[in-house]
Design a protein that fits this description.
By secondary structure, this protein is of the alpha/beta class. The chain is built from eleven helices and ten strands. It is 28% helix and 12% strand. The strands form two sheets. A seven-stranded mixed sheet has the order 3-4-2-1-5-6-7, with helices on both faces. It has a three-stranded antiparallel sheet with strand order 8-10-9. The longest helix is centred in the last third of the chain and has 15 residues.
Length: 397
C-alpha cells in the first residue's frame, strides 16, 4: 500500500478545518499531492486557498541554485504573495514573528532528505517557532524520510558549529521526518506547543524508506533522483573543498573530481576501502557552471548498487581522504564564506566539528578512524533523546 502524505490526509480529512482561516503555506517544488498537484493549487481547488506563501532555499518553485537568494514575488497562477525565507544575508533565514502576524495558521509542507546539512528542516523549525510566537497555530504536513527511519549515521554536531547546514545537534543521517524534527526541537527549546499539530504520513514504515509507489520528484535542483539523495549525506562534504561535487552536470553528487585528479587512482583508492553498496567508475566530466566551469575534470562516478547497504556518511569521509591521497598538490578546503558564515571553514560546518579536517590535514589515518569509531556512541545518545518524539514505529531504534 502506498503511504499517504500529511497534505493528502488534510485534503481528504480536514480541509473543512481551514474554512474561515487566514493561513500561510511554507512549501517547495516537491510539496505535491499523490496526483502530483502542487500543494497550494490543491488546497485552492478544495476551496481553501492560502493567503500567503513562503519559500525555503532554492525558492518556492525550486528554481535557484545553492546559496543564490530567492526574491519575494507573487504566484503566477493564483496571485498570492510569496515571501522568500532565503535572501542575501543570514537574517533572512529565520523569520521574525511579524512575518506571520496577519495569519492565524501556518502549514509547513517540506519534503526533506534526512540529512543534517539539508536546510529545509531548519527553515521549517525556525518558521514554526516564529509563527507560534506570533500567536499562529502550526500544522506540519509530514512526509516520509526517503532514507528511512531505522538507520542513524555519523557524529552529533558539536556546540559552536551551528549554522544553516548544521542547525540541529543531530547525526548526519538522523532518521527523522520533518514532523519528528519539529517535535524534537520544540522539546529542546521548551516551546509552548499547544498550537503545534503534526499531520502524520499514514501507512509509512520507517523501514521502507521511499518505497510505496510514489514517484521521486526533485526536492532541490541538485537532488534529481533517489540514488543522489541516498549518497548526499557523504557527497555534500565535497562542498567544503575546491573539488567539483558535480554541480553543473547532469549527475550532481554522483560525479566528484577536479582538473588534477587521476580518475583511475581515485577509483582504486575508494574500491580499496570496501564501502558497502557502492561502486566507483573512473571518469571525466566538464561542469557547465559553478566550480571548475568549463574545465575538464578527472574523478569518479559513484554508483549505488545496493541502497540498503550504503553508509554514505563514511563514504564521504573516505572520499575526502582518497582525494587528499591521490591529489595532494590540488587538495584544498573551501575558504570563501559558506551559507553566510565566514569565521569557520565550510568543512567544519558540514562535519559539525574540526576532527575531520584535522585528520585529513595531518594525513593522520588513525585519527580519522578513531573519529569514525566514535560515531556509534553519539548515534546511541541521539536515539535515546529522540525516542519520545517518534511518530512512526521503528523495528529498531
Amino acid at each position: 500500500m502506498s503511504w499517504i502524505s500529511g497534505l493528502d490526509r488534510l485534503l481528504a480529512e480536514g480541509v473543512g478545518e481551514l474554512s474561515g482561516r487566514r493561513y500561510g503555506l511554507l512549501a517547495h517544488g516537491a510539496s505535491l499531492t499523490a496526483g502530483l498537484v502542487p500543494a497550494h493549487l490543491a488546497l485552492a481547488a478544495a476551496g481553501a486557498p492560502p493567503a500567503a506563501l513562503f519559500g525555503p532555499e532554492h525558492g518556492f518553485y525550486g528554481v535557484e541554485q545553492d546559496m543564490v537568494a530567492a526574491a519575494d514575488q507573487r504566484d503566477p497562477w493564483t496571485g498570492v504573495p510569496i515571501r522568500s525565507l532565503y535572501g542575501d544575508d543570514a537574517a533572512s533565514l529565520a523569520p521574525e514573528p511579524a512575518a506571520f502576524e496577519s495569519l492565524d495558521l501556518l502549514l509547513v509542507d517540506l519534503q526533506d532528505v534526512g540529512t543534517r546539512f539539508y536546510t529545509y528542516a531548519a527553515t521549517g523549525v525556525w518558521a514554526a517557532e516564529a509563527a507560534l510566537a506570533a500567536g499562529c497555530d502550526v500544522w506540519v504536513l509530514d512526509r516520509p524520510n526517503p532514507l528511512g527511519g531505522e538507520v542513524v549515521e555519523g557524529n552529533l554536531r558539536r556546540d559552536g558549529f551551528d549554522s544553516f547546514v548544521g542547525a540541529f545537534a543531530t547525526p548526519v543521517r538522523h532518521g527523522l521526518t520533518v514532523g519528528e524534527l519539529v517535535r524534537l526541537e520544540a522539546r529542546r527549546r521548551g516551546w509552548d506547543a499547544v498550537g503545534l499539530t503534526v499531520w502524520e504520513a499514514a501507512g509509512w514504515s520507517p523501514a521502507d524508506g521511499w518505497a510505496g509507489g510514489r514517484a521521486w520528484v526533485a526536492t532541490s535542483p541538485n537532488l534529481p533522483t533517489l540514488d543522489v539523495a541516498l549518497i548526499y549525506p557523504g557527497g555534500c562534504l565535497i562542498e567544503g573543498t575546491e573539488y567539483s561535487e558535480g554541480r553543473g552536470t547532469t549527475r550532481p553528487f554522483r560525479l566528484v573530481g577536479g582538473p588534477g585528479v587521476d580518475p583511475r587512482a581515485l577509483a582504486d583508492a575508494l574500491a580499496g576501502r570496501r564501502l558497502p553498496g557502492l561502486s566507483f567508475v573512473p571518469t571525466w566530466f566538464r561542469p557547465q557552471f559553478q566550480k571548475h566551469a568549463g574545465a575538464l575534470c578527472g574523478g569518479v562516478e559513484t554508483v549505488v548498487v545496493d541502497e540498503r547497504a550504503v553508509d554514505a556518511t563514511r563514504w564521504g569521509c573516505e572520499l575526502l581522504w582518497a582525494l587528499a591521497e591521490v591529489d595532494p598538490a590540488g587538495f584544498a578546503w573551501r575558504e570563501k564564506p559558506y551559507e553566510f558564515v565566514a569565521d569557520r571553514p565550510a568543512i567544519d560546518l558540514l562535519a559539525g566539528c574540526e576532527d575531520l579536517r584535522r585528520a585529513i590535514d595531518g594525513r593522520d589515518r588513525a585519527a580519522l578512524d578513531a573519529w569514525i569509531a566514535s560515531w556509534p556512541a553519539e548515534e546511541a545518545a541521539f536515539r535515546a533523546e529522540a525516542e519520545p518524539v517518534l511518530l512512526y514505529p521503528r523495528e529498531s531504534w
